[in-house]
Write the structure tokens for this entry.
Amino acid sequence: MKRKLALLLVAAMCVGLYGCSSKETESTETETTTESTENESSTTASEDVDYNAADYVTLGEYKNLDITITGDYSTDEEALNDYIDDLLADADYVKDDSQTEVLSDSIVNVDYTGILDGEAFDGGSATDQTLDVANNSSVEGTTYIDGFTSGLVGAKVGETVDCNVTFPEDYSATNLAGKEVIFRFTINYICKAGVSREELTDDYVKENYDCDTVDDFYTKCQSDLEAEVSDQKSSDIRSAVVEQVIANATISGYPDAVVEQRYEAYIASYTERYGDYDTFESAVTSTYGITMDEFKEEVVATIKSNLDTEMVFGVVADTEGITLDEEGFETYCQSLMTKYGLSSKDDLFGSYGTSAKDGERYIRRIYVCNQAVEYCIDNVGNVNISEGE
């Protein structure tokens, strides 16, 4: 229940301090490691209610902090070799032009469309899928309904073949349960197992990694590794600073009107997006197995957690005279639009509040909070590194 509910809370709350709160970062990671199809940007943060953060926050130390981060930030030869091994392991199967016909034990890359009563049905189509024919599964291990891949045997690369499949009577999608459908496959190519680091050749890296030689591939991997490690280290420092500044502060309470309005805004957003449920309450109780009181307790706790960051760094900004610069704010908005696939600032602002005006005010506040975080990072004292496990 907690895992499922976490997804619901993420949808409500992840539009807060973008790149600012360590707690928010955890929420974002939860979402991106699940197969959620929810559009983050369509959830509303709240109507932007004015409040004075200094009424609720007394700052502790926020400059010259002594912080510790835990991680492996090595980019030496051993780390590079491990990085390349992991990269090659992620590409277990690669195109093999020498194979032209699907066998019973082939690994094959396909596009497919599911057809019910002559029409493509929702959720039944996909492209660039690599299937394990023998195990009736994806190469990642996701299993399919019986017979899904059996009709591929004997098909040739470039051909389109139809496979007749019957969904189980107890299939979760009631519109498909017990139904006979056609899956129409296009055979893109047949795969072979990838290579190990010791087996790399110029031809292989040229075909699969857009590098002319193995040496070029190693150089590119070294650069990519260094960039990845640098980003991870910066992210860990940021999270540690945010956590420490909040821990050093005293938070005496929360603006009740903000908490209640953000909760109500989330309910409004959810019911608008998931109108197939009779009521919001039935959606919560049937899907997550909790009462509305328990649900509200979870959501309010997340709202307050986000407010901890928002209020504390709002007070830091006021204390240090950090104000909004329009050029930087424009860049920030563009980054959010790219992140959430939005085409205009009106769409962006409207996604962060009950109106575009409220959303813009909210995002302006969050941008200044982010600037305050950057100030604390720039004025950190010692950064100690613990390698951990």
